[in-house]
Design goal:
single chain; 186 residues; mainly alpha; two-stranded antiparallel ribbon; 10 helices; 2 strands; 65% helix; 2% strand
């Protein structure tokens, strides 16, 4: 796992989250891995490594073949299952996540759930710069569509996600409809 953490940290070294606080990007994959290991109690080292690497193919110069060579077939397969095809238009990518969710492996489903948990928390409390309250609500609704399609969701992890959605909606309810904030998310 430390090898995956180091690889991810090196690849995301100059990246920041989209929000105004510009948190180091590496905080996100670490948090996703933390949710899997600590909240869900998952001890699968391949899945935890995939969580640390889950955005490297999508958002850095790393390739799926490089992940496969460095970390093995299982880790690479999980990473590939959760990687968006950036050559597609954003709306197409988002719809694909909804459509593809029911067909992912158990490991990819847990990773996707932990990723959405992390992103919902960011959208609620440290959103991307310029995101209106309406846009933030729409994002949360989209994550619910993805999560609802995931097979065999870990019950404790899903409960943490559902609570995060509730907290996010409560926080957004106290905001002005056209209000925008500085923050971070993906």
């Amino acid at each position: 796992m430390m090898k995956a953490l180091n690889f991810s940290a090196q690849r995301h070294v100059n990246q920041r989250r989209k929000g105004g606080d510009e948190a180091p990007y590496i905080n996100h994959p670490i948090r996703v891995a933390y949710y899997l290991a600590t909240v869900a109690g998952i001890e699968d080292s391949q899945l935890i490594a995939a969580a640390l690497l889950h955005d490297t193919v999508e958002d850095t110069s790393a390739s799926a073949d490089e992940i496969r060579t460095e970390f093995g077939e299982e880790v690479a397969t999980i990473v590939e299952e959760v990687t968006d095809d950036k050559s597609l238009e954003k709306g197409v990518r988002k719809q694909y996540q909804i459509d593809h969710a029911p067909h992912v492996s158990w490991a990819a489903a847990q990773l996707k759930l932990a990723d959405k948990l992390s992103n919902v928390e960011d959208v609620a409390h440290a959103p991307p710069a310029g995101w209106s309250v309406k846009h933030r609500h729409e994002y949360i609704e989209w994550t619910e569509q993805v999560v609802d399609g995931l097979p065999d969701r870990h019950p404790v992890l899903e409960e943490a996600y559902r609570r995060a959605v509730e907290r996010a909606r409560a926080a957004l309810a106290t905001s002005e409809p056209n209000e925008t904030f500085e923050g971070n998310s993906s």
